[in-house]
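I am writing to request your help with a piece of structural work I have in hand. What I wish to show you is a protein chain and, alongside it, a tokenised description of its three-dimensional fold. Could you please explain, in whatever detail you think fit, how the structure tokens follow from the sequence? You will find the record immediately after this paragraph.
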Amino acid sequence: MSTISKYGRWIEEEGCFELLTNDPPRKWTNVHYNDIGPDELYSEVTTLGDGTTYVRDDDGVTVTLVGWDCSYVYVRDEVSGTVFCPAGAPAPEPVMSFSCRYWPAKTEISGICEGLEATQRIFVPRDHPVEVWTVTLRNLTDRPRRLSVFAYAMFQLTGTDAEGRYVGKDSYAEVLPEIGGVLATNRNTFCPTDRFKGYLITLQQMAGGEGYRDHFLRSEFSVGTPRILFGYDLRNRPGYGPDCAAAVQVKLEIGPKATDRVDYVLGQAGSAQEVAALREELSPQKLDAMCEEQMRIERERAGQFRVETGHADQDALMNHFVKKQLYSYLINKSGFRDNLQMDNALCMVDYEAAERNLLRALSSQYADGSAPHSFRPLNRLQYADKPAWTMLAIPGLIKESGDLALLEREVPYFESDETGTVWDHMLRAMRYLCGDLGQSGLCNQHHADWNDGLEATQEAGERESVMVTEQLCYGLREVEELALLRGEVEVAAECRQRYDEFARRLNEVAWDGEWYVRTICGDGYRIGSRENREGQIFLNTQSWAVLSGIAPPDRAKQCMDAVEERIKTDVGYRIVAPPYTNYDPRVGRMSNSMPGQAENGGCYNHAAGFKGVADCVLGRAEQAWETFRKVAPDNPANPVSRSKNEPFCFTNFFSTVPQIYGQAGLPMRTGTAGWFTVLLVEWILGARRSYRGLLVDPCLAREVPHAHVVRTFRGAVYDITLDNEAGRGKGARSVSVDGEAIEGNLLPVFDGGEHEVEVVI
């Protein structure tokens, strides 16, 4: 039985999840955003309608408009004096018929109090970096209603400059009738632009406003007991100090059985004139059209693939929400590693966005082939894995599109007069890693690598990353294949020679008898060795030994068996076992984290994605399926009541700390979504891209006798049915396309249309 049904349900025909209790395990969070571009707004929206809102400009200057637990809508009946919120909280008055519906494009929260239904719709339009709150009020009674609607948000207005330096606040706020609301300004000397300003306005007639938290809340400063509970009307007072806020009141009368609405807009601006111009442009009808446009965009992304595995909740996550999780990850986040990994999956559902993001990331690469940690805002710390991801993302996009011309696109190098083709950028990344070696001949780890928690310390000395060296080997094989397609035999030979040498070194110096160690320190200490008391085995070096092909068959089986024996738990796969209980400066920050949390022995789901694909490479269908089921929200061994995970997104990790065992951390914004999309669609269900076309190469567990995947690929739609009745699990015994049997498992490339594919495993 689903562990999710206790709290709500998927509405398949609408593509949304409906929460039917106002007491979920925690406030479940959706995210909304505008298009990736020079001005991006990223809004987290919870069960109560609150959440953090960020805005980022083209240089990476980032402003936190509103923080956590401080933005709400209240409705007051002016006759009875009753005040309630659509969600029932934070105001103390309860509501009936509570519902919170999460769509990829919007969130709608509704409740009924004293015969009045209030619904709050929250969304972000694609071409405006603003957050829109529409409050629809439906009078269910036979008497007229006199009401006030209040919107409240406490502004943060802190942030970072283009290089990630913190900007504090020195704020004031004004109630401006000409904009229909409140404009707050951060006057801090170090604000890098004039846009550290936030506003909250209404499109209707403003009855009053307030510019400071203390004007709206009582002396206990609780959003559950604002002054409006006691008949208070807003008095248009400005605010000065750290707690500037906006409260905007609208009065209206609604006839019997009638409906009316109030619209609020939250955003960032450079001036009051800019806000006034926006307000003039907008109307309730335009907001509705903007919302419908965003719904259409998300439906189009969602339609790029569909899956059926016999697990309804899991399938709904993949069919409706995971695509927005891929796209949204690129909003307000520009890490070189993070974005390139996500591009490799996003290109399956929005190729143009993935390609634009790839080119933007490559423009932050240095001329020597290295890359910064992030580029928007800029973080110059050297994480060793960054260049390696070019050799995954670039081939991945070309396999998806079939367009080798991408390699000829010219992209500048960062802080350099040089420009190079995409092919040149990838070769420089490869050669940089091949030359940046330590005393064992493996890649230097520098500040850290994929595992941010392995941060260097003064005591650490030089360290070599086994994982990055394995990633380099993976990349060398990818570049070799592309070089042969381009007819560059010398580059292909270079890749093969380097691959053979690094594979030999890894098996000589990194094999620990049953698995591969994680890091080799300059003093000879080996992180991730069985000789250690803690941190004996790390997940990633086993997965990447398989993905890169450097592990001989016996060692590949041995190290992945060790993962099952030592890493696996009922709630996922630890990134390291056993966790560290004491700080070790050679290991870095992760050893100082709570044992069992995140990188220090938590089940870090992004890494489980690597592991699941490695299982498929080895034909371990049962283990791959188990990996997917453990990480998806509806894991029977980790019910939602314990994990607290949103049913509509992958989460970053599950804790193994005993007091919070199985609890999910950091939902929505995680590379887990990208890797588990690739794992399910391309490896478990087997609809995998290649330069020559679409392969069908499933790796399906006996638990799934039948499956179905519909995949749009190079303009054609492939409707693939998988028959696993015999339980063989791996490969395609027979394949037919549009009723005709074909040889092999490479599907024909079609010029559009829909095509039926039947596969017997």
